[in-house]
Fold this sequence. Notes:
Oligomer: single chain
Distance between the termini: 11 Å
Bound molecules: NADP nicotinamide-adenine-dinucleotide phosphate
Strand order of the largest sheet: 3-2-1-4-5-6-15
Number of strands: 15
Largest sheet: 7 strands, parallel
Amino acid sequence: MRKIKAIHYGVGAMSHMIVPYMLEKGVDVVGAIGRVSNIGKDLGDVVGLGRDLGVKVSNNAEEVLSEQEADIVIITIASFVEQIYDQIKLCVENGKNVATICEEALSPWWTSPHLTSKIDKLAKDNGVTVTGTGYQDVFWANIISLLSGGCHHIDAINGLAMYNVDDYGPEVARSHGVGLTINEFNREEEKQEIPSFMIMCVESICSAIGWTIKELIQANEPTTSKMDLYAKSLDIEIPAGNATGRKEVVEAVTNTGVKFRVELAGKVYDPDEADINKWSILGLPNIELENIKPPTDVSTCASIVNRIPDIINAEPGYVTIENLPYLKYRPYPLHFYLK
Length: 339
Ligand SMILES: NC(=O)c1ccc[n+]([C@@H]2O[C@H](COP(=O)([O-])OP(=O)(O)OC[C@H]3O[C@@H](n4cnc5c(N)ncnc54)[C@H](OP(=O)(O)O)[C@@H]3O)[C@@H](O)[C@H]2O)c1
């Protein structure tokens, strides 16, 4: 049985866990694509393996993707589909399946229908699958649709989640407005309406259950602290009162009148704060779920690695997680799960 071959695209904070996890699950990591940092260095050295992998980080994506045979490319460069469209296109045109932790990619039909249908067509034409996964796959989507199966009737679904932007690289902190004054934050918000990562999760839960979204609104505000905080990922001091990140509230109504209200904050934490994941389904019966201090960053990386066989096994096209098997722990080398 042949081992799975993977290329890692975007050698940032998450690659430091994803690459070792892939290797530990029997995946051959055969290529690494970066932008500015670490070009020419060995990937094993960059992700802290303590040994060389014989894979140099390259900034020539065309060369790596056209010359290197691989089953799948793991893309960890940005949060929105528009930012990774060209990279997905290049992977797909070179016959590679794609798994990404780009948050919007989890379920981008509501927010980026045009680009998603273009990717879907490209993937079908090239016989490969593109899927967005990560922490949300289990904790903000599948866990809720699974719990819904224990209900006879549902009136509303409420969620509350929080993560520390400092567990990730600078890309994440910058996109959350970390360090900006409140005026700068509000000006940025006016310039571009950034869709909450929870929109894709509401969409995914609705699609899994068979609801369509009739109305959806989002409100954003900066999060702040009473004390000066150090933002590790940007290596800056955030003065008290400046933005430590962003809180988003997403409210949606389905075609059957079910109401969603989901609150999400991504911020640099005060010393006493920890990640939150709490959901309630209101109906018959009411169901409450709370994960105590969920390890968001580790689960992000474990999830994308566990998803690899599902994505390779899937039909070609843009395949969202509710159309894949429930995500499961993989105790054996990942090629054991290939059909
Ligand atoms: N779905 C989830 O559960 C989840 C969880 C965590 C993170 N994420 C998302 O995943 C992304 C990566 O997170 P991270 O913490 O690893 O961020 P990061 O440390 O900032 O890493 C991003 C990396 O991507 C590279 N990059 C950016 N554009 C590139 C391009 N065009 N070609 C090649 N490389 C490129 C950057 O290279 P340079 O250093 O040279 O600029 C950087 O090394 C973020 O958008 C984050 O929001 C998702």
